[in-house]
Design brief:
Elements (H helix, E strand, L loop, with lengths): L8 H22 L2 H4 L10 H16 L25 H20 L9 E4 L2 E4 H27 L16 E3 L6 E3 L1
Antiparallel strand pairs: 1-2, 3-4
Helix pairs in contact: 1-5, 3-4, 3-5
Length: 182
């Protein structure tokens, strides 16, 4: 993702959500099918369960974002950790549906909406706070997805960002924000 300087909190947030979505997708692409559904141990969640949880959260938080509580009465959070999607195709469909709701809600906002108040579990948040809350939540779980994908991808893993031991090879032009290899 080429960084673009902006003074728009909303534009920057949308760019970051797209970055995290793409990061997880690039990681899951490198994960063998069996790894998508395998937890590391009895207390861990598989990638498929993390995706199901994220999609449930996304549906609840972003549906009628400005007009209803972000914790919908029909959400069953505990069930998000049972019965994961059963195939890569089903997992991706659940993933895409969740993100569709995120981007539809964000695309309907303007910078002027950032100070409006929305509720999450009955607690008031500015729109900006609600976006920050979701950004942190998604980044946390996407980090888990990347870690698990890397674990199950093992020796075939290709770095998603700057490869280990090669950071000195990359530079960024301060004026344009363009990253390049030295």
């Amino acid at each position: 993702m080429a960084h673009q300087r902006t003074d728009s909190y909303l534009d920057d947030s949308i760019t970051l959500f797209r970055y995290y979505k793409q990061l997880a997708e690039r990681a899951m692409t490198q994960c063998p099918d069996a790894g998508l559904f395998a937890p590391l141990d009895g207390e861990s969640n598989s990638i498929a369960l993390i995706v199901k949880h994220l999609a449930g959260n996304m549906r609840s938080r972003w549906t009628a974002f400005l007009t209803s509580d972000g914790e919908k009465p029909d959400r069953d959070r505990d069930a998000e950790f049972d019965d994961p999607p059963r195939s890569r195709a089903e997992l991706i469909a659940v993933w895409e549906e969740g993100w569709r709701g995120v981007f539809e809600a964000l695309d309907g906002l303007s910078d002027a909406d950032m100070t409006k108040t929305v509720a999450i579990r009955g607690e008031p948040h500015s729109v900006m706070q609600a976006i920050n809350r979701q950004m942190a939540h998604y980044a946390y779980h996407i980090g888990q997805i990347v870690c698990l994908s890397k674990h199950f991808g093992a020796d075939a893993w290709t770095a998603l960002t700057i490869p280990r031991g090669r950071s000195r090879e990359f530079t960024t032009d301060v004026q344009t924000g363009t990253k390049s290899q030295r």
